[in-house]
Amino acid sequence: MSTARAKLVIRKQIVRSFKKQQLTLQADAMTFLEDTLEAQNVPPEDLNDTLDNIVSGYVAREGLSLVSRARLEIVLESMQKWTHHLHEKPTRNTLDPHKSQHALSQSTNYPSSQHHYQHSQQRPNPEDLESIDMDSMRDRIHEMEGEQRTGERHQYGDDNLFMEGTQDRASQMEGLADDDADDVDITEMLHVIDAFSMPRWRWASDIKTFTRVESSASTNPQESDAQRNGSTRAATTSSTNHVLGHAEEKTAMFRARYHVLLQRIMRNECFAPPVFTGGMEQDRYLKLTPLKALKGRCGERFLMFGMLIQMGDGKYCLEDADDRVELVMDHSQNSAGLFTENCFVLVEGQYTDDNVIIVETIGLPPPELRDETKKVFGNIDFLGAPREMRSEEQLRVIAQEYEDISFVILSDIWLDQPKTFATLRTIFEGYSNSTLPLAFIMCGSFKSQPFLYNGLESGQYRDGFNTLAELIAEFPTMATFSYFIFVPGPNDPWGASILPRPKIPDFYTAKIRSLVKRSIFSSNPCRIKYCDQEIVIFREDILNRLLRNCIVPPCGDVVIQKQLVRTIIDGAHLCPLPLTTRQVSWAHDHALRIYPIPDALILADKFEAYNFKYQNCHCMNPGSFPTSDYSWMVYYPASRRSDICQIPKPVR
């Protein structure tokens, strides 16, 4: 391969790697990176991995969409210092995920050099990058390393003793790591996140990343400090989080849904435009056309993305951020999914002289695996869980080591039915004589009939929880060590049938909170963070609502449960229904967002029980406890599987 062609291949690969992460290289940064790769003699087969490491390092450290040479130099200097070659990944220490092995060996046993190490590890202010003298920094690093080697020889005498001391320290570190794994309290690995405590993120198109939207009202500082320090197991609802929002929140809600899906689509490999135009590459990707670009292009076929809406005259339209166009779906072919008003879809069709689209195909936006999302936005905390000092790899190992950990999931626990308590007693007796579950997830409704706001109904509702508290207290070990997580349902007070629903008021649950040590009353929906896994819990009879509001008939060759799960996950929203059918709080719509895709999704529905995987997400429905002959579901996070359980019937 000639030199000119080799440089062209390198440049093309550089642009493609940075383009995947929505990054733009300045001309001087491009030249600097080409020269660096050429100087390092990176083999052609390692070029792709090398560039991926550089891009990942830049996103983790800087995150700015416009890549300048000064910022790129900082990233490469850091990577070159801690790795032997540019294409190798730095190793991490099992004790502290934020330190590399080499850095730990420098800072653990040499008090005299701690000041130099900490000083060299300080990250420069991005605003002052242009003023950094990289040559002076490099000379200072070499000088400190020389002083460090001199101190090591003085302390250990010769190289052999130094190597023995290093091996002893490595063995001590391994022992400490084993002790740390043995001392893990698995009950401290579970956190429940209330819907009203989740951070709100908005997509910023100018910098191509998410920015946090701060609440205009002041929050309780004591609650905020407690959540940041992880001193509470459940994130509590702040007094300033109101269900109702401002008038502008309604349009902002749909706009946020649109931009979250659009940025995900444009990052998909099928929709990513080629780096260099020309040749056959122009036909190798799908091109989205904005609706405002349809004017004057009659007779052409287009692929568009937007939200399905219904006008006053009953006609359906597709609407994006700039315009809307009428749809004619008489002969459309739809892919798997349940398409309702206010859901976001991809539409392919022909634009006619009447300014309408003759729809040929309608489908859901392509999903994105959780790992792919974390690669791009790994520095963004979408969940709002307490900070964890362990790395994701360490948490994953811990979850896999505790194979017997399980979550018992029940839905529709009707506390006004005597048979419910008899069945629960049998279940509690069985688990108390075997391995205790880490958590009992009890979803509502906790009443067989809708709650009426009068004194009689209120007293009976409270008595049901008091009876449940006394039942759980009969099993002291279970009441002390197992979590009991309560999620309200459609018949529970209160929330005016608006999603997300607040937790059940404390007035009804005082006794169960006093007798059950780890009882948590959360919102609907809510989320569980267990080790490295995110579990979403949503109690809603969503399937029947979607079927009643479908615009086009469901695809007949796919199981209806899978169409439901695909609609929710691909659409990145738990409730893709029109607001006239299911009301959603405008200010807290982000709590219903399924982005990134969770590790497990619990859709507690009255429909029959099911469990399967979709896009590496374990989806399950325990079914209605009383109407399914008192069956429930058990989820095992170590193996990421679930089983449908039922009390054996006596043999006659």
Automatic annotation (TrEMBL):
InterPro entries, alphabetically?
Answer: DNA_pol_a/d/e_bsu, POLE2
* GO BP annotations, alphabetical order: DNA-templated DNA replication; error-prone translesion synthesis
Ranges of residues in domain DNA polymerase alpha/delta/epsilon subunit B = 407-609
Q: Which residues cross the membrane?
A: none
Q: Which cellular component terms (GO) are annotated to the entry? A: epsilon DNA polymerase complex
Q: Which portions of the chain have biased composition (kind: Low complexity)? A: 112-122
Which Pfam families does this chain map to? DNA_pol_E_B
Designated name of the protein = DNA polymerase epsilon subunit B
